[in-house]
Request: fold
Amino acid sequence: MAFSLNLRSIILNRIIRSDVRFGFRAFSDAADGAAEGEEQDNGAAVDPTKDRTKVIPLETSMKYMQSKAYNQTYGESPVWFLYRRNHKGGFAPRKTRKSCVRNGMISTGNPCPICRDEYLVLHHQNTNLLEQFISEHTGQVLDAFKTGLCQKKHKELLVAIERAWDQGYLTYDVPFREYDYSLYNKNNETTKNKV
Amino acid sequence: MSLLFRKPTIFNAKNVLLRQNDVQILLLTSKNFSAVPTIYDGESDPAPKFFSSNVQVLLKRLTRPDFNKVFRKRTNSGFPVLKTPQYKFLTTEQLEAEVAKSRARADQLLQMPPVVKVQTHIKEVLSRDPALIGFDTAKYMFTDITLGVDNQHRIIMERDTDGVLQSCDPDVRKRLNQIYFPIKGRKIKEPVMFTDPERFNSLLDREQYEFVLDRACIQYEPDEPSYQKITSVAYQHVDSRKNYGLLRSTRHFGPLTFYLTWHLSMEGLLLELLQNNVIREAVLLVALRQEVHGDVANGSAAQGLVAEIMNTPIQLSKPESLTEEDIQLDTKCIDCIEQYISANSSMKSQQELALQGFREFYQQLIDLSRGVRKAHGNA
Ligand SMILES: [Zn+2]
Reply:
């Protein structure tokens, strides 16, 4: 009797706790400390390679881009170069998945090139990373279909690149502007139609 | 001429702080560079000088167009897919026609952004209607969107809340023009790289001059104060670092040269030309100064040489052999430059040294080509 009571209380406890946890996380991706602590209470071990709750500072990421470890992993090619999407059938769906990270954890077995490496931070100052997503032939941002980025990271990438262009961290070929000299060369103008 | 201009020197921190109040947007300081932005204001207008055919010819020649650089691979076509190149067999006439076509295209790509006096805005009041006071809490803007009218002459008026119908500020005009007739690449909001001195400075330190100037051309009109401030700082940076080569064969080299000549600070450029053994372009630069200011001692001699130099092909690399005419022309050029240095230059010792270096190099070249001709037996 005592044993079954004990078991019931444990089960009840679990249900309530898990309820609380889901309530917590349904609205936020980044799990905070309390939820994390609870998880460890439950005994479910967090796989450190899948945990994406830690925010990597930009400086670390920029240093990483220059490091030997990075070179060993990716070599000279862009970070998305060797990535392959998993899909059924011969043709990949046009859209990539919405996000690789749910509840602060990697939720897929084949996370996208940015999500799989936590040290790749999309930021407008991280030009070494952003450059890899711009076509050297057309100067436009590569499609997620080609790079395999999840929709969420692709959107972040677009924002970061637009910021970098605006602030001059990335340069590009500016459209050519042809001047009409007759507008500026006032002395030469004989018929000046003033309005 | 603007009195604001100062040669790039090292200010101390106090000075910089004092000056920062005077200059609105940009005062750039870094470890070894600081420049005071200038605009073409004051009595004299640079436009008649800049657009005069003599000056245009000189500036275009000084640009020294190298087709490899003019037609470099660009990514600004805006097409998501590139065009496939075509390979053709051509007869000599067809080839010449194609070359002429690409020359015309290069001329088009090298069109210099106009150098004009800064704009002055006069507020023109069309009517005052006191009956409209309090009609609305917002201004009304009226834009004439007839096609075929250029942005400068388009009628754009504002009806103020106090009933005054008047012409509007230049930046409001610019914004409305951009809304109705967008220029490709121009942003309604100024890019942060121009408004934030730190970002702008870092671009200059990375020597991205062409990008900065190209973007300034798109974002601003040539007669806007901000355009002239931005370009003047970029030009001074180029001058202080002697990075003339980066702007050569781009459309910005002409305005750069004009800017330096206008402010009588083209000695650095002259020195660079002498050090790179392009004596003919040095003469052209002297002639340009004579055209713009008319204060060169032997100015007419330099101007006389211009016609002769124009007939010779552009020197993109070091000459390998010289004909007797070349030697005669270059000797005249050396004399001309020597007189200029002794009479007008403010950087005498360095330029004399460079000229001496050129003389020695040239003597070797003369000996070599005469020797070669002798060996071939037709001297
Ligand atoms: Zn992802």
Remarks:
- The pocket of zinc ion is lined by residues A 100, 111-112, 114-115, 150, 153 (CB under 6 Å).
- Chain B touches chain A through 43 residues (CB under 8 Å).
- The first helix of chain B runs from residue 13 to 20.
